Each structure stands twice: as C-alpha cells, then as structure tokens.
Amino acid sequence: MKTLIQHGFIITAGESYYADLRIDDGTITLIGKDLPAGSADEIIDASGLYIMPGGIDPHTHLEMPFGGTVSSDDFFTGQRAAAFGGTTFHIDFSLQSKGNTLLNGIKTWKQKAADKACIDYGFHIAVTDPSDKTIEEIPLLLEEGVSSLKLFMAYKNVYQVDDTGFLKVMDKAKSQGMLTLVHAENGDAISYLTERLMSEGKTGMKYHSIAHSAAVESEATNRAVSFCDVTGAPLYIVHISAEGAVKALREGRRKGLPVMGETCTQYMFCTEDDIARGGFEGAKYICSPPPKTETDKAAVWEAVCDGTLQTIATDHCPFWFEGGKNGRPAGKELGKGNWSKVPNGMPGIEDRFPVVWHHGVNSGKISPERFVEIISTNPARIFGLYPQKGSISIGADADLVLFDPNQKHVISAGTHHMNVDYNIYEEMEVTGWPKRVMVRGRTLVMDDVWLGEAGYGKFVERNAGTVI
Ligand code: URP
Ligand code: ZN
Ligand code: ZN
Q: N or C terminus: fewer CB in 10 A for the chain?
C-alpha cells in the first residue's frame, strides 16, 4: 500500500515545515516538497492540517487487577480510545505476581493484549519480589523486548519493595543497560497515616489527600534521587505531582545524575479540591499520588515548560464510578464510606493529547515542537523506540496524527471512547482535534469514525533507551 500525504504542515520535536510525505507499506519513505503522485494507491490532502508523530503514552494500566477489582478498559477499548485521542503507542505495566517470575508476568500481559490490540504497544515489568532469583532474571528481559523495570515504594504489603531490593534492581538494570522506573511515595508513612485516620473515624474521601501528602511523595522522591546518586543507575520517576518532588528531580538533574521525570495530565488540571468535592464525587479523583494544591500544580506546569520534566503520561487506570452492575467489574463504589477502599486510578488515555495541546500550545505556554517532544519523541527516546516511533523521518513507522488546529471539541463521558462512566475533564472545550489518526500507515480514526480492528496492533520490542 502506497500513500501520499500532500500539503500538510509537519511538526516534529526539532522543527516545523510544509512538506509532502510518502508512505510505503506502513513506513515513511520520502519527505519533500511537491512529491509526485506516482503509483500512490491513496492520496490524502492535508491542507490546513498539522502532521505530528502519534502520541506515545509511556504509563498505562489496561485490564489491571488492582484494589480488589480490575481496571475497566481492556486492550481493545483502551487502545481504541487512545487512537481517538491521537495516541498511537503506549507502554503498559505488566506485573510480577508474588512467587512468580518476571517472564511469567510479561507472558501473561502479552496474552491479554495479543488478540485485542489495535495500536502498537510495549510493556514495562513491575518487580514486586526483588529476590536473588528475580534479580538473576533481569538480563533475560531484553530478549522479551522489555527494557524497563518498575518498582513501587508505596502499596505496603502489596507491591512495595524495600530500599535494599530497590538498590539491587537498579544496579542489575544498569549493568544490562536497562532503565528503572519508580513510584515514589513512602508506603510505610501512608500505611501508618491510614491506620491513624481510620482509628479517628476519618473515612471521607478528602482524607486520601492527608495520607498521601506532598511530604510523603517528596520524601520518597528525594530518597529515589539519592539512590540514583548511590548506584549511578538511570532512573525515571513516574507520575510526579508535588512541588517537593519536582525540586528533588531538578536538583538531581542539576548535579548531573541520570534521573528523569514524568508527570501526568491530571496533575496539570486537578487539585485536592476535586477529591474534597461533596458526597462520593471525590472518589473519581482518587489516585496515587493524588493531585495536590494549586502551588503543586503550578510547579508541575513550570517543570513541563522549563524542561525539568521529560514526559507527560496518563497513568490511565480507569475504574467505573458505578461498577459492580450491568456486567461491569466493581469500581469506585467499593470505597463508599471509606476512602482507603476506593480503587486508585483515573481515566485519561484519550484526553492527554488534545488537552495538553489546548492548554499548553494554544495558551502559549509551550511551543508546538516542545509539545511533540514531551508527548511523543521523549517517551520514544527514553524507552528505546526512537526513531521507529516518535519521529517523522525516513524509515520511521507512519504513526501519524493529522490534526485540525481549529476544530473545537467538548470533552464528555457521553462521547468519549474510554470504557468508564465519567471523565475528569467533563465539559472542557478544547480547540484542536485529531482529524485522522494512522498507525503504520493505516487510518484507524477519521473524523471521529472508527476504522481500526482488534488484532492489528503489534507488540514492539524495545531496545535500551537514552537518558535525556
Ligand atoms: O492511582 C494510581 N496511580 N493507580 C495506578 C497504579 C499506580 O500507582 O501507578
Ligand atoms: Zn504508581
Ligand atoms: Zn501507574
């Protein structure tokens, strides 16, 4: 299949320019002015549209067993929703189950995705049992196409690892050229504070924010950055929400440590006031770490703009607000009357690209090139996908968003494609919307119509990435 895209305005992380694009069997083969139609099977007129590399979301949890239930998007519904919103690749977290091997965790997640996938994807592996046997397995991961491991400093007695385990994994990962990711919140402090709040009868949703305070995140982030210093191993801190955590990252980078950081869209728009909304409404915003104050939100924005943070992900981990009926798995209602039982996580895989464009680029906070860098190119570089993904260059996969910068769209759970009954950006109007979304040259979404299919998406083996 040969496709010619004419008259588009190409935006990459490095530059922007008018050019035509030629795609042969899913790969970009020519970029230039006034390319001849030649033997093209399909000619697309992209006049008035921006052409960007498809979004890459490096942090998602599809079909994840968590908090006594399972996240509500599977690999088909979640990936389809991603495509509608301009995201053409994501990296999901496979999990080591207690007593099982890492390879087993990856195999389980590969099986979940294989027949359902409609966009391309990769996996990290979360190490929950850093025993000597597990550490010995780490060199085998690259053969599975997995080049990054995640550790949790939180979720005591579930996923949390101790500092020794953390250091051992970092050292081993470094020796293999692999990247360690960390969820930095102090799980012991959370557990202690949770018990204390419960004994005081403080069960309302707003107390989630007290147990998961900024200090709890900042302490763990400072510790994680110190471990980066101790081992010299590259480290990527996921879902940063607190000003103190941003400062720790900035200071680590200033010292020249190989530490990188991610925030998520929700920390740029939500605050603790959302969790404190009346009744049970606040449960919609319960995730870990939770959104914090206006000051923290401003610090996150500043770090996005000044380059302290390298990526914006979603941590997409949706749970039904009203689950446990009509064939839905249990959801947020598990925590009615007790915040500590609310499954942690928020939806967002579909919203990130247009929401960040609207509030970042249209407002003048970031340039279009910085947008591409943080939404697509940096995740590709860091996670060993570049330039196959995250770029518009000869030889790259034609994962493209043809974006109409003038199209307005009102975000709503009534029209979104995520398998969840609420949207944290409900009624937000954005200007700029994906008109056409392509993965390896095939159009999956056109004018909000779904043209993709389950089984088209491919697992992509990742190489060692780059510290940026
Ligand atoms: O609340 C969250 N973030 N849920 C997903 C799991 C995690 O910690 O990333
Ligand atoms: Zn996490
Ligand atoms: Zn997560």
A: N
**Residue 98 clears pLDDT 90, i.e. is over it:** no
- Residue 376 lies inside a defined structural domain of this protein: no
Q: Is residue 47 situated within a structural domain?
A: yes
- Assess whether the C-beta atom of 421 lies below 6 angstroms from ligand 1: no
Q: What is the pLDDT of residues 193-237, one digit of tens each?
A: 999 999 999 999 999 999 999 999 999 999 999 999 999 999 999
H helices of 8-143, in order, are 77-84, 102-114, 132-137
Ligand 1: does its nearest atom lie under 6 Å from the Cβ of 288? yes
Give the DSSP per-residue string, 315-331. -B----TT-SSTTPPP-
Alpha-carbon span 25 to 32, nearest angstrom: 18
CA of 305 to the centre of ligand 3 (A): 23
Report the SS3 class of residue 196. Answer: helix
Which secondary structure element, helix H or strand E, spans residue 95, and what is its range?
Answer: strand 87-95
Give the CATH number of the domain where residue 42 resides: 2.30.40.10
**CB of 61 sitting under 6 A from ligand 1:** yes
Among 209, 263, 317, name the best residue to mutate to test ligand 1's pocket (greatest count of ligand atoms within 8 A of Cβ): 317
